[in-house]
Write a structure and sequence with these properties.
The chain has about 210 residues and is an alpha/beta fold. The protein has ten helices and five strands. The protein has helices spanning about 10-20, 35-45, 65-70, 90-95, 110-120, 130-135, 155-165, 170-180, 180-195, 200-210; strands spanning about 5-10, 30-35, 50-55, 80-85, 100-105. Helix 1 links the parallel strand 1 (about 5-10) and strand 2 (about 30-35). The longest helix is centred in the last third of the chain and has 15 residues, at about 180-195. The chain is globular and about 50 Å long. About 40% of the residues are buried.
């Protein structure tokens, strides 16, 4: 199945570069481009993409504003944040607002494709190698109940599921890897979220990385 993508980026050269990269992936088709947040919301409403590449900083309505607006809409598509630098506070706010991951704008085709396919399948693209600087910057971010040290001990199977979540695998892929039913995986994921005291998979991975569980 072809993944339908919208690219939201205010810098024309960067936007065109991302579109050209995506044209090299036969499993992806770009169904629209937007230059700012307002255009993005209209485009998403019209095209109903599977994934949105969303710039953090745009004039007027920025990426965080778009995430907040999408959170109020039913069946909003998953968003991957685009940034030119690692800003721990901004990226943490974005994750809390519902972003499913983030990419640097000079991303390679392999990473870009992997991220899009990952979130389209229901996963989160939050890799340890990409979050080192952000996690180091957590000490400078104000305390938040979703990233504190409170958690309950995970079972061995829950730890396995958490590890696969950290790799960006969807529930279906985790079920296949562990040779269990997808419903069983959903139950394990719910238990992991509850024990880590977080609301979604992305926050679970971020907190697990911070606590040294991954």
């Amino acid at each position: 199945m072809t993944i339908r993508v919208c690219v939201v980026e205010n810098e024309a050269l960067v936007r065109q570069g991302l579109v050209r990269l995506l044209e090299l992936d036969p499993g992806v088709v770009v169904v629209g481009e937007a230059r700012d947040g307002r255009e993005a919301l209209q485009l998403i409403e019209e095209q109903r993409p599977d994934v949105v590449l969303l710039d953090v900083r745009m004039p007027g309505m920025g990426g965080l504003d778009v995430l907040a607006a999408l959170a109020r809409r039913p069946d909003s598509p998953p968003c991957l944040l685009l940034t030119t630098f690692d800003d721990p506070e901004v990226l943490l706010h974005a994750v809390r607002a519902g972003a499913r991951g983030y990419l640097l704008k000079d991303v390679s085709l392999d990473v870009l494709s992997s991220a899009i396919h990952c979130v389209a399948a229901g996963g989160s693209f939050v890799k340890p190698a990409m979050t080192d600087q952000i996690l180091r910057g957590l000490e400078g971010v104000a305390a938040h109940p979703e990233i504190d040290d409170v958690h309950e001990r995970l079972t061995e199977r829950e730890q396995e599921v958490l590890g696969l979540l950290g790799g960006g695998y969807s529930n279906a892929e985790i079920a296949q890897a562990l040779s269990v039913a997808e419903r069983t995986v959903k139950n394990h994921v719910s238990s992991v979220l509850g024990k880590l005291h977080v609301r979604d998979r992305t926050r679970a991975v971020l907190k697990a990385l911070r606590l040294g569980l991954l």
